[in-house]
Design brief:
Length: about 375
């Protein structure tokens, strides 16, 4: 039977993918319902945070034929009353005889109790089918639940010689339109965007979602700005200013703080990181506690360095254009003081390498800091 469960779990994983732009900070989940005789009678996807879970959609489609059948689902069914009723109750009410699960849900409200409740009600539970793929699908959610800190990806648009901007600071545009579009698509997947204040000063970005893939147009937009240098007429404040959070050091001038708060932003004081800048651990704890399970860091080089040096970035999504800008003063993809030997370097592992029109897309995960 194992081969069949694997094939069905892969189908459930594909279904889960349909929720990529709507479920966060909830996990993505897909489900396939089989009749007693093993025919697929229903499929489901968790499409949006707060909406019905994948199992419920599959049951709706195939409840009549599902009695005595099997539910194949990428994530352990929930047992708690959240924004929706527990899926375990729905599975029991529908008379499901067997549940095949990809991975347990690390959420402390579930974490094995879904499996236990099903087994003690006499349901056969098969666990760990395509477990690695099911965990990878929700790696941001798993990281956030395990650490309380959001999963961090550094997004970089750079030249072949690793520059984020030309001498003098101009960066628009280094990469092709297709790369920029993929970069914008990432904004629809992550719960928060983060930049350093130099990027605000150089580019005056709005940091908005542009593509409409995510039904929720709003996201948290974070600026690291130790001394509150963000101008009060920054483009950031033009739309949804209440989504802007500016982190600064303790004891910033009250009038500057009020100016930015009057624009609608939240100004949050954090401790010093030992180098006179915002303590990133405190920043991430705040962001994670405010419901963001993932952060897309969009530069610049100084901020990238801080995240990598502190071991607080989990992955890098780089767009590399076939351009050389040169310039020892031009901003590098990763700035800072740098390490003094290759042995000290942060080690990553490429998980995806592809061409996108004239650019290259390199996706790597941090292995060791
Ligand atoms: N091509 C791209 O993908 C891309 C993306 C973004 C930016 N850029 C370009 O990059 C340039 C700006 O990059 P940049 O490296 O100069 O600066 P940056 O990383 O945007 O900002 C760095 C500044 O953020 C503040 N900060 C506060 N806490 C920090 C912390 N823990 N770690 C690091 N910084 C912290 C510091 O200023 P305070 O001490 O004053 O707080 C620091 O100098 C611009 O030219 C922009 O156009 C390119």
């Amino acid at each position: 039977m194992t081969g069949r469960w694997i094939a069905l779990m892969r189908q459930a994983l594909e279904l889960a993918e349909r929720g990529r732009y709507g479920t966060s900070p909830n996990p993505m989940v897909g489900a396939v319902l089989l009749s007693r005789s093993g025919e697929v009678v229903g499929t489901g996807t968790h499409l949006r945070c707060g909406g019905p879970h994948a199992e419920i959609f599959a049951l709706k489609e195939g409840a009549a034929e599902g009695t005595g059948g099997t539910m194949v689902v990428t994530l352990e069914p929930c047992v708690h009353q959240g924004r929706t009723p527990p899926c375990v109750d729905a599975l029991l009410a529908a008379g499901i005889a067997r549940v095949v699960i990809g991975t347990r849900d690390p959420n402390p409200l579930v974490n094995g109790s879904g499996v236990e409740a099903l087994r003690s009600a006499g349901v056969e539970v098969v666990e760990g089918v395509e477990e690695e793929a099911c965990r990878r699908l929700n790696r941001r959610f798993f990281h956030w639940v395990a650490t309380g800190s959001p999963y961090v990806t550094l997004k970089m648009a750079m030249t072949l010689d690793g520059k984020l901007a030309a001498r003098g600071g101009r960066s628009q545009w280094i990469t092709s339109e297709a790369s920029r579009k993929e970069g914008y698509a990432l904004r629809e997947e992550y719960d928060a965007l983060l930049v350093g204040v130099n990027t605000v000063l150089a580019d005056d970005p709005r940091l908005l979602r542009h593509l409409g893939l995510n039904p929720d147009p709003q996201l948290l937009r974070v600026v690291l700005d130790t001394h509150l240098r963000t101008p009060s007429d920054a483009a950031l404040f033009q739309r949804d200013p209440q989504g802007v959070v500016i982190f600064c050091s303790e004891g910033v001038p009250a009038d500057r703080r009020k100016e930015l708060e009057d624009r609608g932003a939240a100004v949050v004081e954090v401790g010093d990181d030992g180098r006179g800048q915002c303590d990133l651990r405190q920043v991430l704890r705040w962001v994670g506690a405010h419901g963001a399970s993932s952060v897309l860091v969009e530069g610049g080089g100084e901020v990238h360095w801080s995240f990598l040096r502190e071991g607080l970035a989990q992955s890098v999504h780089a767009f590399v254009a076939p351009l050389v800008l040169g310039g020892r003063e031009a901003t590098s993809a990763v700035g800072g003081a740098g390490f003094s030997s290759p042995q000290e370097a942060v080690r990553l592992r490429f998980v995806e390498v592809r061409r996108l029109e004239e650019d290259l897309v390199l996706i790597a995960e941090v292995e060791r800091v």
